[in-house]
Each structure stands twice: as structure tokens, then as C-alpha cells.
Amino acid sequence: MAPSPARTRRDGGGRSRAAVSSVPQRPSSLRLWLRRRRNLLRPAGLGLLGAGALVAAGLAVMAADPYGRLAALWDGAAEIAASGGLQVKEVTLEGIHNTPPELVREALAVRRGDPMLAFDPHEAKERLELIAWVERAHVERHLPGSIRVRLQERQPFAIWQREGKFSVIDREGKVVATENVGAFGRLPLVVGPGADRAAAPMVDALRGAPEVQERVHALVRVSERRWNLRLRNGADVLLPEGQEPAAITRLAELQKVQGLLDRPLVAIDLRLPDKLVLRLPPGQQPAEQQAPATQRGRSGRG
């Protein structure tokens, strides 16, 4: 006769003490997944299939426990992916002309051999667009190991002088550089508070009158309301507020007919539409000329 099986004592809740003490603690599903796939992810030919599995697992864990395990999973997955071949192998840059390369490297914050999945292209884009030269940045991550960066830079438009300091600005007046400004010495020079924001129409007007432009040393903003032209010979041309383009056209005609800008003058005052006031060097009599009828008519329309 077979012996009867041993009886197990039950506590007040009816559970077997042997069952409570003998059942081993099972590893979490996350650890099982990582353990089972570690060997599969190690080969160098990991490729897109392995990356897709990592992302799918991450989404599953996010749905089950969006706060507790996601960070740990992503860090672990990035390390596994790196050991399996998903490492940064090359970074290609396009559209970089004036942006300092060291600033680009700092903004990307990635090196060869870093885990590809640990690189966030959106964060890199935001950091790149904080660089003064960069207007827009496009950052792409291409598995298994390539990062592509394309920059759209701001175009240098003029040199702005204020309080003895020089800066390179773009057409909108944004400062893009304060160092090595001498490399942009051929750009127009604009001077004074507010000159940065108001320079574009004046520069355009001068480009339409090359006989005036070639004799201009700087465009000086006066009281943030109007402009003077400082000529290379030291003379100042006083332009009327709000009528600068018309006055520059008038000045170009006077230069063609009379060679006015080449005379030894202290100032040329064009603020009055029907008069041309010339300020001569000390010791000479000031001169005042009536504008020709054609010029008066044009000035009145401007």
C-alpha cells in the first residue's frame, strides 16, 4: 500500500507555506526580452531589422509603464545597438561657409562610435539654430551609422558700427559675427543706433547709383530718423528724412553733370527739395544753389 502523500499545513488564508517559500522570483518581461535578444543583437550586421525590434519593444513598454521603465530601456537598447553595429560612423555637413566648425561640433554633441539611437536629431537641430550664423538646420539620422546635417546660413549684408564696436549683420539686421569682422571689409558700413534695422533700403538705393556708391565710406544713421552719407573724401551728404532714395538719385545726377562729389566740400545738404546747400572748408564763403527746375520737379514728387 502506497504511503499517503505528506500533508501541507495551511495558514489562516489557506495558502501553502511550502508554495510561498519555494516559488522563485521571475525576472521581469523587460529583462527577459533584453536577455533573450542580447545575443541576437551583437552581430555586426544588425541593420534595420534589429533597430525596428528595439523601437517596437520600447513602444510596448511605454504603453504598459510609460514612466518607470522607458528611460532604462532606451539606454540599455542604445548600448546593445551600439555593440551590435548601430554606431555613428560618419557625419556629413552641407551648406557650411561662415559658421565656425567648432560650434557645429559642439551643437551636434556626437562622436564617431557613439550609439546611433542615443543621438536625437531634433535636439541637435534646436542647438544648431542657436548659432548666430545658422538660419535653419536640417538634421537626419540614417541607420545604420550616418548623420547628415544641412545648414542654411544667414547671408552677411553689412558691417554695423556702434559705440566703437563692429559687427557683421544680415539683411534683417541680425548680428551674425563680432569676431574676424575684417574678413568682410567689402560690405557696406552702417553707423549708429538703429542703423542695423534700417540699412537694407539704403544699401539697395546706393547699389542703384554706382557713381555715388563708390564714393561712400559709410551710411550714418542720425537720431534713428534719417541718414547721412560719409564720403571717402570726408564730406557729409545730409539726406532728407523719408526721401533718401529720391535724394540719392538727385545726387547721382549732380555727380554726372557737375562732379559734385569730387569737390573739396565739408557737407552737401539735400534736405530742402528746392535748394542745394554746399558747406565749404573754413575760410571760404558758403554756397547755396537753386536746384534746376527738372530737379525741383523730381524732388517734389519724391
TrEMBL record:
User: Which InterPro entries does the record cross-reference, listed alphabetically?
Assistant: Cell_div_FtsQ/DivIB_C, FtsQ, FtsQ_C_sf, POTRA, POTRA_FtsQ_type
Q: One of this protein's Pfam families, by short name?
A: POTRA_1
- Keyword field contains Transmembrane: yes
Q: Does the UniProt entry include the keyword Cell division?
A: yes
Q: How does it sit in the membrane?
A: Single-pass type II membrane protein
Question: What processes in GO biological process is this protein linked to?
Answer: cell septum assembly; FtsZ-dependent cytokinesis
- PROSITE patterns assigned to the protein according to its UniProt record, in alphabetical order: POTRA
Q: Which domain of life is it from?
A: Bacteria
Entry's transmembrane regions = 40-63
Annotated segments matching region Disordered: 1-23, 280-302
Q: What is its main location?
A: membrane
Keywords on this record?
A: Cell cycle, Cell division, Cell inner membrane, Cell membrane, Membrane, Transmembrane, Transmembrane helix
Q: Where is this protein found?
A: Cell inner membrane; Membrane
Q: Which residues form the POTRA domain?
A: 86-154
Protein name as it appears in the record: Cell division protein FtsQ
> What organism does this protein naturally occur in?
Roseicella aerolata
